[in-house]
Amino acid sequence: MPVITTIDDLKRIHKRRAPKMFYDYAESGSWTEQTFRENTSDFDQIRLRQRVAVDMSDRTTKSQMIGQDVAMPVALAPVGLTGMQCADGEIKAARAAEKFGVPFTLSTMSICSIEDVAENTKNPFWFQLYVMRDEEFVDNIIARAKNAGCSALVLTLDLQILGQRHKDLKNGLTAPPKLTIPTMVNLSTKWRWGLGMLGTKRRTFGNIVGHAKNVGDTRKLSSWTAEQFEPKLDWGMIAKLKEKWGGKLILKGILDVEDAQKAVQIGADAIIVSNHGGRQLDGALSAIRMLPSIIAAVGDQVEVHMDSGIRSGQDVLKALALGAKGVYIGRSYIYGLGAMGELGVTKSLEVIHKELDLTMALCGRRDVTTLDREVLLIPQDFEGKWQP
Ligand code: GLV
């Protein structure tokens, strides 16, 4: 068993063990990948204040997200095709999250279905919805999420049309993989992954195959989005969906103050400041750079969460200190899953938790819920002067 001390360690093993097309799918941004890169490099610009001779005993990372107790305010983000990184991946990730005491969010574009995850876990999880053109499908999936006891609906707003990721086109991404010669050559070196896949029936989009109509190639994410996702989604439709769901609603993909204000008017319980991990609008600002202005505008009216770029506990601390009440990790746990299944997801949570706890102590703090900008050193031009 290799000694894992960082998320990067898990990433290296993930790259070795998972088929190239799925590793590349996770590790891509859209077009030039500028936003994807800046999501992480902008975190590096913020520095921390070292404080000494303060009581560092009895520390806690416990907090709440949308009123739910969490062992640390770090949820697992919805990630498409998770069950292709490792057999039954969503079930494994949900179990790791449940044992750790953090929320798990299941993607509409998952391999394991809502029902699969519910049957194999005890605690309620969150369900992420992509709005489809087929209203009956949407009503039905909302009802399925309610029946499964999901405790929040995470409505994604920034992917009604798919941003182009060059690698997915070049690799011919499908779930399950289409057996072309390059893919077969690559799969022949991934025996651990292959054995897992032989042992499961869950190998395509479990939430939608058999539930949605009129799709050309049901194995392709690009066909689903182009043929099914509703490009007309607007605030009026969001308000109706909120009513249909009737429970806690989190709006994901907010990167603009005006949109954050609209989310408040709709009555969202939380918003996620996010650019979809740099996978959608390439050229958009990083989520961490947008966070302060969104917090300043609506932070006292709605719970503000963030994702996109978190690869360490130090990153978590920076986002919380800027005012986020919670963050989400996507790639950081997918690396763990692709590396070593449920154990790897647990490992990624442990790595991040330990980094968060120790970093907080070295900043002279004992409680994540009291973190504020006082622990940070922020360059004066961090947010930048951008003109519309
Ligand atoms: C889907 O959520 C994707 O970013 O591919």
From TrEMBL:
It comes from the Bacteria. Keywords: Flavoprotein, FMN, Oxidoreductase. Glyoxylate binds at residues 25, 165, 276, 279. PROSITE patterns: FMN_HYDROXY_ACID_DH_1 (PS00557), FMN_HYDROXY_ACID_DH_2 (PS51349). GO terms for molecular function: FMN binding; oxidoreductase activity, acting on CH-OH group of donors. Its cofactor is FMN. The keyword Flavoprotein applies. Residues 1-381 form the FMN hydroxy acid dehydrogenase domain. FMN binds at residues 78-80, 107, 128, 130, 156, 252, 274, 307-311, 330-331. The active site is at 276 (proton acceptor). GO terms for cellular component: plasma membrane. Belongs to the FMN-dependent alpha-hydroxy acid dehydrogenase family. This is L-lactate dehydrogenase (Cytochrome). It comes from Yoonia tamlensis. The lineage of its organism: Bacteria, Pseudomonadati, Pseudomonadota, Alphaproteobacteria, Rhodobacterales.
